[in-house]
């Protein structure tokens, strides 16, 4: 069911500083910031040859990333995103196996314009999992 790793997301308290560190210190290609109000975040993608790193900053006080940064003020890994061929089929298989889908269970449009779902971290050994339709 799982395809390749699409991205690893890191919550950061200062998106501009994190972007500069990846671009200037590590020499990586980075995208322009993209606000995603539906998800409560602003994102920057670090482009790598085999995957991406998504830098996340809260967009508004109700952002789930704001809550994450309250617990982890320096930032840290927030989630890992795997590609799937059919997100509804993947969701149905996972729910039948006992996994919990966050939210209302319906895919939302992610940063890449594709359907995404999140799976409860308690079902996956403390790791928040995002699924993105390839």
Rg (C-alpha, Å)? 15 Å
- Annotation field: number of helices: 3
**Which structural class is indicated by helix and strand composition?**
alpha+beta
What's the structural domain tally?
1
Shape: globular
| Number of beta strands | 9
Helix content: 10-25%
| Major sheet details | 9 strands, mixed
CATH-wise, what's the superfamily?
A: 2,3-Dihydroxybiphenyl 1,2-Dioxygenase, domain 1
Unreliable sequence segments: none
Short description:
It catalyses: (R)-methylmalonyl-CoA = (S)-methylmalonyl-CoA. The chain is α+β, with helices and mostly antiparallel strands and 134 residues long.
What does this structure look like?
With 134 residues, this protein is an alpha+beta fold. Helices cover 22% and strands 38% of the residues. Strands 1, 2, 3, 4, 5, 6, 7, 8 and 9 form a nine-stranded mixed beta sheet that branches.
How would you summarize the topology of this molecule?
Elements: E1 2-11, H1 15-25, E2 29-30, E3 34-36, E4 41-47, E5 52-58, H2 64-71, E6 76-84, H3 87-96, E7 108-109, E8 115-119, E9 128-133
Parallel strand pairs: 1-5, 6-9
Antiparallel strand pairs: 1-6, 2-4, 3-4, 4-5, 7-8, 8-9
Keywords:
134 residues, alpha+beta, 2,3-Dihydroxybiphenyl 1,2-Dioxygenase, domain 1
């Amino acid at each position: 069911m799982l395809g390749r790793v699409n991205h690893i997301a890191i919550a950061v308290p200062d998106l501009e500083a994190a972007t500069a560190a990846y671009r200037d210190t590590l020499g990586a290609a980075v995208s322009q910031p993209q606000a995603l109000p539906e998800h409560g975040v602003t994102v920057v993608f670090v482009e790598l040859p085999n995957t991406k790193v998504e830098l996340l900053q809260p967009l508004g006080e109700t952002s789930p990333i704001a809550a994450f940064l309250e617990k982890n003020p320096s930032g840290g890994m927030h989630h890992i995103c795997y590609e799937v061929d059919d997100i509804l089929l993947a969701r149905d298989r996972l729910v039948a196996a006992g996994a919990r889908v966050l939210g209302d269970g319906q895919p939302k449009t992610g940063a890449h314009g594709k359907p995404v779902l999140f799976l409860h971290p308690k079902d996956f050994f403390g790791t928040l999992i995002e699924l993105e339709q390839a």
